Amino acid sequence: MPELPEVEVLRRHLEPALVSRRITSVDVLLPKLVRPQTAAELSRAMVGSRFESVGRRGKYLLFQMRQADGQGVQVVGHLGMTGRMVRLPAGVPLPRHAAVVIGLGEDGDRFVFEDVRRFGRFNLETGPVEALGPEPLEEAFTAAVLAAALAGSTQAVKVRLLDQSMVSGVGNIYASEALFRAGLSPRRASRRVKRAEVIRLHQAIREVLQEAIHEGSTLPLDSAAGGEGLFYYGAVEGASDFYQERLRVYDRAGRPCVACGTPIQRIVQAARSTFLCPGCQR
Ligand SMILES: [Zn+2]
């Protein structure tokens, strides 16, 4: 499931591929993804406009467009669990699970949102973005902000980190990785995390995200999957090596800890898998 780094890498690929392109058509093949708008409403808002920028907030992509009359349009995209975004040249068939297909003009290029499991979204609603907590890689996210968010909470620290109103973009993979790097048990009650540990955790969150963005940016997404131009590094050739080499605890149950050799444990918290080293994380 894509988290902040995967979405940021995707954003960096999409922006140059889309900016200044004029939208000539919008076809919605899976209406669920554009709710509460209808296909006709989304099409009316977008057709005729040009892409100005592709931004990101947490795990959301923010597509900014402008109509010829100067009116701004913003579409909020979310990959859900399996979403992928593709720029397809003319003549290349649509992927089987194409959900939204945006025509980019006379050369026949299309921008396609594909979603096998249909948990993604692509609509005009900005509410979910407004409810997000601070961006973990921006200045506003300080150790003091993290300390305040943990203080007084009886939730396990790993569960608390997944709360997008506390800090945005951290999901299951990078929460596990950051807690390992900080030497902190995911089971610890948030309010019992000591000051020095908060500082380590704050630094660890930023490091794991920054490193994943950096590494993900080196993968050749454009040429992936036989030149289909699949943009999303969780899905490209080389990505599985990337995850195996970079991740120290996530999805490594039973394998030796890279630091102390203790077998990595998998536990379930709030119905999600957590991976930890019982030797290194207290
Ligand atoms: Zn260990």
At a glance:
The protein has 282 residues and is an alpha+beta fold. It has helices at 4-18, 39-46, 127-130, 143-150, 157-161, 172-182, 195-216, 224-227, 239-246; strands spanning 25-28, 50-57, 60-66, 72-78, 83-88, 98-103, 110-115, 121-123, 230-231, 265-269, 272-276. Helices cover 30% and strands 21% of the residues.
Notes on the structure:
With 282 residues, the chain is α+β, with helices and mostly antiparallel strands. Helices cover 30% and strands 21% of the residues. The chain has helices spanning 4-18, 39-46, 127-130, 143-150, 157-161, 172-182, 195-216, 224-227, 239-246, and strands spanning 25-28, 50-57, 60-66, 72-78, 83-88, 98-103, 110-115, 121-123, 230-231, 265-269, 272-276. The structure holds zinc ion. Zinc ion binds at residues 257, 259-260, 262, 277, 279-280. Residues 257, 259-260, 262, 277, 279-280 line the site of zinc ion (ZN).
Q: What's the SSE pattern?
A: HEHEEEEEEEHHHHHHEHEE
Classify the beta-strand content into a percent band.
15-25%
Major sheet details: 5 strands, antiparallel
Spatial gap, N to C terminus: 27 Å
The parts where pLDDT drops under 50 for at least 5 residues are 223-230
What structural class do the secondary elements suggest?
A: alpha+beta
How many helices in DSSP terms?
A: 9
**Whole-number radius of gyration?**
20 Å
Based on Cα principal axes, name the global outline.
elongated
Can you give the mean pLDDT?
91
User: How many strand segments?
Assistant: 11
Range of helix content: 25-40%
Bound molecules: zinc ion
Q: How are the strands of the biggest sheet laid out side by side?
A: 1-6-7-5-9
